[in-house]
Specification:
This protein has 275 residues and is of the alpha/beta class. It has eight helices and 16 strands. It starts with a helix and ends with a strand.
Length: 275
């Protein structure tokens, strides 16, 4: 492994198997004048500009758990989003599994979630995606890779092949990736989140007020013991100032369990309705 690759500060990753990721990165390279560095990863050339590098993996993004040969301060995956609804969607999230892996990563393991980058990304997706007919939302923490030693964010275009080939949507994602990696990140209160459905509408709604790192949805509530909540706290970067609960998005018994653990950790909690 080249020592110069280990010095990369900001890393963009995509999979050669991913149509949307490939389109996003092609736009990123062409629009912002990235060039080959002479280095290679996984058999593909690495591109660079200033302190940003772009690497391609031969496996699907959720299985790129061998990226620890890099040591960046932030890693952004340009990726497709897939759902049965096929609804045009722009989304972002960090990876992790609250229980048995459904798609890559390790059981009951979370990645490092860069809350301030996530907030910047979701708010820019709202702005840049305003002129195209796409929903914009957070997704909760899910899928792999989970074992990377640096903060990871996925920025995705979905939800089927039609949108993966929509260059207007892919350009929005490319613009957002470039801006979050080249502009200053604003310091705002950081949080972890609990409750609600997969697309986290109440957390998306308050994204201008707080920076959410890991979000555990209602369907993961049965797995939220002390160990998992401690991971949410320790692997949200910067460390969360408080927790936010989607009050109506959790059963009362699950809320009480979560609040008891949060109180034990000394972490203040609020409701999404407080913002």
């Amino acid at each position: 492994m080249s020592k110069s690759l280990q010095k990369i500060k900001k890393l963009v990753v995509f999979s050669k198997k991913d149509i949307a990721g490939t389109n996003i990165v092609k736009i990123l390279i062409d629009k912002f004048n990235f060039s080959e560095t002479g280095e290679a990863f996984d058999g593909f050339p690495v591109y660079g500009k200033n302190d940003i590098s772009i690497a391609c993996g031969k496996n699907d993004a959720i299985y790129l758990d061998y990226l620890n040969i890099f040591k960046p301060e932030i890693c952004v995956f340009a990726s497709r989003h897939r759902s049965e609804s096929k609804k045009p969607t722009l989304t972002c999230h960090s990876p992790g599994n609250f229980s048995t892996p459904g798609a890559g990563g390790n059981e009951r393991e979370l990645s490092y979630a860069p809350a301030l980058y996530l907030q910047k990304a979701i708010n820019l997706l709202k702005i840049y995606g305003n002129n195209i007919p796409y929903d914009v939302s957070f997704e909760v923490t899910h899928h792999g890779p989970t074992n990377l030693s640096f903060p990871v964010i996925f920025i995705e275009v979905g939800s089927c092949e039609e949108q993966w080939n929509d260059l207007s949507a892919c350009e929005v994602a490319a613009d957002v990736i470039y801006e979050i990696l080249t502009r200053d990140i604003k310091e705002v209160p950081t949080a972890i989140g609990f409750g609600g459905p997969h697309y986290a509408p109440n957390f998306t709604k308050i994204s201008d007020k707080i920076a959410a790192g890991h979000i555990a949805p209602k369907y993961a509530a049965d797995f939220l013991d002390r160990e998992m909540i401690e991971q949410m706290i320790e692997k949200t970067v910067p460390r969360p100032d408080f927790a936010v609960i989607d009050w109506k998005g959790l059963k009362g018994s699950r809320r009480r369990n979560i609040i008891e653990i949060l109180d034990d950790f000394g972490l203040e909690w609020k409701k999404t309705g407080d913002f």
